[in-house]
């Protein structure tokens, strides 16, 4: 970057910017957790719904950051760093990015629409990169924050920008237009995503097309009602309407390819698109239009389109061999996305040791010397323990980094490197497409059978924020990660929660807490069912017991005395009607006598559990529980010199009894995407998707049967697919015998006959499919809620029933 703080002070409406020294900005950051923050960083302290970065300034100063754009200066930090005060830090970030954008004069392509933005962006980058030096937004960085941050990736050597713009509510596009200033506009598919933020479809369209305000051309699928709203010239495409500028006629479609004859300006030519699904064909047509507009010859277009590839948008965390974890980012390698991937590595690292496998970096726009200088400092700041480089160039430039091993090609690495030397480390695999790093991933991945439970970490973050948005900012959140995170995964989720700075984790047994501590989790952890025999281990691992009886309390005190510890945090549970665990009123006097002036323990919190927070028919009962709790709390805390934290609400409690959030809540099932009412469910994102594949397909005749006890008898010729998942994996038998279904290629396939221990069979008579095709057991659809209803249980039981032999895969968009 080549600009200074002094350059931007006039453009960000600074309210106060006193006595600032000259400062040349090397890095812009909004993420206090990034290891890339240092002396060259200008940090923007953003304030969101659930998040205020001003809280972390002190920490950043300790790390060496000296310059901040803030909305207020925390009193104790006044003299410790340099602050520019503005009304709104997000706005200042956007203004800064506009200033930065205007230092360069290359044209921009701006992409919006509901689906396909990132794919079109990645494909255009691929199609145009032989002729342009392109800067583009990494991954799906398309928000009010993501777009400005992406802009800072530009430099004087770029001659084309490709940026996507995504909006979730009104009045956002205007800002993005000012930052991107596209000359070429692209409108991809208009779907239903983010409808909530808008009162109508037309409002959504009106908002989106603001991106095209100053475009010389807009490219879109033929649509008269949208075209007439556009201020500029258009290039339209269609498969059905010959009036479109570019008309595509599908010739045939086989072996994964679709041939399309394109007619443009009375001239026809054929392209072969390496996809068959509608979305990919639409996105490819958008790309063809863009190339035609840029005056590419039809032969070049056909040649390049033929090589389009599937875009993997997600950073995936996978279980690797020898207890390693892999972060698979094997499809892109540019400087911006390397920064993001390194932040993700730090966030998700499950082992102390961090390894990076990195290929040559393309498209940076920087001279190689300068590029790799920057990469070197990134690697050093991120404290990478071991670096493996692959490519002709990168190794030479990074050779001064300690612990580097270099190979010229992926094949050479796979042949010469002892792969078994990878052990207990987190490995980020990041390479440009041409290096085929997916081969490395396949080899390093732990082999397992094909059934996987995919867990969407972004959805977990989203759901957490949804519940937080119902709470006061100061209310603490304990997240229940008992039973292996409700079956979804223990430390991977705990790690994410630590990243989100929740206040407490809750587990059922000491062992679960010990596992989390061993994986490096440092958050306070409450244990719901501590056994007396585990008290010593709990103290050793800093786990806080729930104590629910006088006997339990005395037993704990005995251990505390032996170990001579003081003020050990404990949590007292009161029984107010659940009748599971907890003190009853007739024990309060004895309890008070013990906890009064007791130096061995500190009553950190007092709580109770609601028996029916999910059912408003029991409102009376619930309010009575709350009243009993409040009385008990006042009584017990009267003998203490401090006020313990009070907490009573679980997920449904947060939803139905928000007013009783007190100082803390205990969030469980909602985090994993399931609420206890339809109302609540609508506002959550699905977290886990259980997937398998088709093992074999049989065609049976009328009168023949399927599975044990001949429970299904065909009444006509039927195509039956076998899926390698059964009740030993947690699929309940009540879901079989035509009650339940799975999804194959987005179509329902009914389960035929009894579910077996390790397999089940489904009807695919009407579905085009083959062995190896993906099968969705549950996810968005069928939803666990539906499965639970049909099998006479609740989603909790379905989740925790998924066997540990099913491999968990965590991903992030
Ligand atoms: C499991 C549990 C919770 C969370 O309940 P959800 O209904 O999943 O939100 C809260 N508190 C206690 C004591 C629990 O055992």
TrEMBL record:
Substrate binds at residues 580, 757. Pfam families: Ala_racemase_C, Ala_racemase_N, Mur_ligase, Mur_ligase_M. Residues 687-811 form the Alanine racemase C-terminal domain. It catalyses: L-alanine = D-alanine. The modification N6-(pyridoxal phosphate)lysine is found at residue 482. It is an enzyme of class 5 (isomerase). InterPro entries: Ala_racemase, Ala_racemase/Decarboxylase_C, Ala_racemase_C, Ala_racemase_N, Mur-like_cat_sf, Mur_ligase_C_dom_sf, Mur_ligase_cen, Mur_ligase_N. Pathway: Amino-acid biosynthesis; D-alanine biosynthesis; D-alanine from L-alanine: step 1/1. Keywords: Isomerase, Ligase, Pyridoxal phosphate. One of its GO terms (molecular function) is ligase activity. The active site is at residues 482, 708. Its cofactor is pyridoxal 5'-phosphate. Its EC number is 5.1.1.1. It comes from the Bacteria. Catalyzes the interconversion of L-alanine and D-alanine. May also act on other amino acids. Belongs to the alanine racemase family. This is Alanine racemase. It comes from Flavobacterium ponti. The lineage of its organism: Bacteria, Pseudomonadati, Bacteroidota, Flavobacteriia, Flavobacteriales.
């Amino acid at each position: 970057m080549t600009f200074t703080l002094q350059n931007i002070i006039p453009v960000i409406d600074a309210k106060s910017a006193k006595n600032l020294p000259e400062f040349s900005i090397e890095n812009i950051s909004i993420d206090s957790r990034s290891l890339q923050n240092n002396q060259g960083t200008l940090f923007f302290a953003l304030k969101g719904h659930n998040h205020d970065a001003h809280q972390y300034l002190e920490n950043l100063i300790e790390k060496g950051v000296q310059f901040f754009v803030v909305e207020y200066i925390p009193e104790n930090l006044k003299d410790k760093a340099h602050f520019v005060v503005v009304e709104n830090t997000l706005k200042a970030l956007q203004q800064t990015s506009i200033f930065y954008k205007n230092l360069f004069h290359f044209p921009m392509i701006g992409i919006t629409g509901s689906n396909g933005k990132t794919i079109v962006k990645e494909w255009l980058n691929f199609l145009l990169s032989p002729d342009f030096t392109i800067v583009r937004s990494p991954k799906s960085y398309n928000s009010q924050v993501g777009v400005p941050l992406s802009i800072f990736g530009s430099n004087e050597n770029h001659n084309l920008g490709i940026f996507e713009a995504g909006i979730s509510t009104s009045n956002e596009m205007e800002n993005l237009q000012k930052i991107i200033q596209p000359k070429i506009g692209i409108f991809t598919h208009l779907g239903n995503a983010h409808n909530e933020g808008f009162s109508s479809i037309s409002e959504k369209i009106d908002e989106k097309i603001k991106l095209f305000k100053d475009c010389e051309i807009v490219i879109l699928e033929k649509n008269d009602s949208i075209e007439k709203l556009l201020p500029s010239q258009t290039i339209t495409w269609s498969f059905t309407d010959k009036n479109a500028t570019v008309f595509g006629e599908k010739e045939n479609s086989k072996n994964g390819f679709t041939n399309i004859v394109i007619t443009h300006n009375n001239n026809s030519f054929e392209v072969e698109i390496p996809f068959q699904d509608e979305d990919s064909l639409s996105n490819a047509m958008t790309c063809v239009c863009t190339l035609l507009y840029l005056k590419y010859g039809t032969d070049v277009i056909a040649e390049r389109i033929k090589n389009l590839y599937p875009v993997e948008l997600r950073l995936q965390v996978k279980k690797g061999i020898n207890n390693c974890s892999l972060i698979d980012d094997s499809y892109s390698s540019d400087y911006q996305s390397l920064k993001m991937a390194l932040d993700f590595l730090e966030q998700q690292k499950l082992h102390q040791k961090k390894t990076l496998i990195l290929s040559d970096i393309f498209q940076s726009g920087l001279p190689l010397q300068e590029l790799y200088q920057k990469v070197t400092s990134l690697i050093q700041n991120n404290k990478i323990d071991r670096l493996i480089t692959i490519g002709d160039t990168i190794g030479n430039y990074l050779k001064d980094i300690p612990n580097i091993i270099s190979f010229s090609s992926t094949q050479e690495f796979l042949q010469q490197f002892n792969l078994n030397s990878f052990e207990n480390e987190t490995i980020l695999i990041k390479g440009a497409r041409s290096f085929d790093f997916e081969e490395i991933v396949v080899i390093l991945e732990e082999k397992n059978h094909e059934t996987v439970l995919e867990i969407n970490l972004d959805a977990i973050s989203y759901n957490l924020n949804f519940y937080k948005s119902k709470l006061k900012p100061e209310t603490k959140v304990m997240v229940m990660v008992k039973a292996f995170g409700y079956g979804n995964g223990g430390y991977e989720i705990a790690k994410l929660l630590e990243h989100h700075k929740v206040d407490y984790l809750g587990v059922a047994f000491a062992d679960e807490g010990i596992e989390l501590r061993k994986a490096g989790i440092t958050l306070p952890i409450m244990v719901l069912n501590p056994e007396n025999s585990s008290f010593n281990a709990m103290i050793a691992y800093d786990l806080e017991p729930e104590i629910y009886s006088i006997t339990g309390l005395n037993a704990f005190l005995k251990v505390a005395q032996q170990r001579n510890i003081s003020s050990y945090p404990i949590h007292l549970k009161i029984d107010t009607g659940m009748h599971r665990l907890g003190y009853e009123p007739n024990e309060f006097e004895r309890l008070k006598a013990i906890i009064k002036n007791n130096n061995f323990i500190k009553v950190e919190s007092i709580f109770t559990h609601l028996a029916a927070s999910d059912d408003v028919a029991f409102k009376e009962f619930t309010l009575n529980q709350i009243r009993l709790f409040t009385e008990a709390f006042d009584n017990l805390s009267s003998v203490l010199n401090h006020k313990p934290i009070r907490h009573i609400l679980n997920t449904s409690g947060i939803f139905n009894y928000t007013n009783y959030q007190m100082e803390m809540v205990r969030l469980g099932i909602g985090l994993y995407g399931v609420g206890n009412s339809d109302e609540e469910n609508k506002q959550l994102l699905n977290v886990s998707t259980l997937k398998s594949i088709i093992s074999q397909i049989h065609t049976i005749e009328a009168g023949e049967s399927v599975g044990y006890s001949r429970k299904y008898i065909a009444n006509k010729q039927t195509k039956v697919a076998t899926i390698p998942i059964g009740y030993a994996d947690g699929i309940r038998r009540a879901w079989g015998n035509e009650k339940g279904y799975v999804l194959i290629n987005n179509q329902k396939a009914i389960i035929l006959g009894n579910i077996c221990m390790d397999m089940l069979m489904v009807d695919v008579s009407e579905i085009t499919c083959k062995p190896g095709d993906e099968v969705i057991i549950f996810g968005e659809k069928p939803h666990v809620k539906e499965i639970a209803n049909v099998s006479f249980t609740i989603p909790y039981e379905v989740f925790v029933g998924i066997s540990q032999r099913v491999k968990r895969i965590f991903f992030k968009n």
